[in-house]
């Protein structure tokens, strides 16, 4: 295999982080992106950590929308590499959305590998915990993530809703990841309507011998709170996912 000259730059750019947290699910639309935004918000505002965010959904990046960033009006800073966008005092974001704007680019395996490596080799981060929003499934981006990131610093949080199909999907993904010896931290739920839904997810986690990290409640009219208004719903979410926040903070302190 040819040597990739970007490998050294990627290593250098990532070695400053204390922890990498990847949020994954096999099933689309279960709330990975929203969960990443909420976890970042809680960590940056309530803990002594500085959060960097990476949207690894290269063909359909959406994290910037939940965070309320308009890609047309932000400008990237370049100085021997590029600086992520400042979201708030202790939060920054790097996303393909800036480069592709409104268009959607189809990417094959090798192109995904290239795009991921390119972004990671030029981005100069400032945070100490990197949260990664993954596309749905388990394919090129995920394998690239597992290959490039130091696994001893990595935590994978699996997200599911309480619906049967989502639970079955997360179960399969957990088994595949555990077979690969990937560092799965546990399962976090999203869109729980009541305690019985919470229990369904807890049961799945227990059967897999994984920690249950709590469930974000279903929030009606959620889109109205994207951006700066996330602050208004945090108090309704934070108590439910204390465990998820704690495992990240604990890993970040190592
Ligand atoms: N707790 C919640 N309550 C209500 N709606 C939610 C909640 N979490 C997410 N949503 C909504 O569900 C939809 C899917 O959420 P999101 O985009 O975060 O999922 P995703 O897993 O990242 O999707 P994809 O697989 O496409 O990346 C969005 O419209 C989002 O606003
Ligand atoms: Mg998403």
Structure description:
The chain is α/β, with parallel strands linked by helices. The chain has one domain: P-loop containing nucleotide triphosphate hydrolases (Rossmann fold), CATH 3.40.50. It is built from 10 helices and 10 strands. The chain has an 8-stranded mixed beta sheet with strand order 5-6-2-7-1-8-9-10, with helices on both faces. Helix 7 links the parallel strand 8 (154-160) and strand 9 (184-192). The two termini are 34 Å apart. Residues 32-33, 57, 62, 133 line the site of magnesium ion. Adenosine-5'-triphosphate binds next to helix 2 and strand 9.
Can I get a quick summary?
This protein is an alpha/beta fold and 254 residues long. The protein is built from ten helices and ten strands.
**Structural class by sheet pairing and helices:** alpha/beta
CATH class categorisation? Alpha Beta
At CATH level 3, the topology is: Rossmann fold
Kindly state the number of beta strands.
Answer: 10
Q: What are the distinct ligands in this entry?
A: adenosine-5'-triphosphate, magnesium ion
Q: What characterizes the major β-sheet? A: 8 strands, mixed
Q: List segments where confidence is low: pLDDT < 50 over at least 5 consecutive residues.
A: none
Number of domains: 1
Helix content: 25-40%
Radius of gyration (CA) equals: 17 Å
Mean pLDDT across all amino acids? 93
> In the CATH classification, which architecture applies?
3-Layer(aba) Sandwich
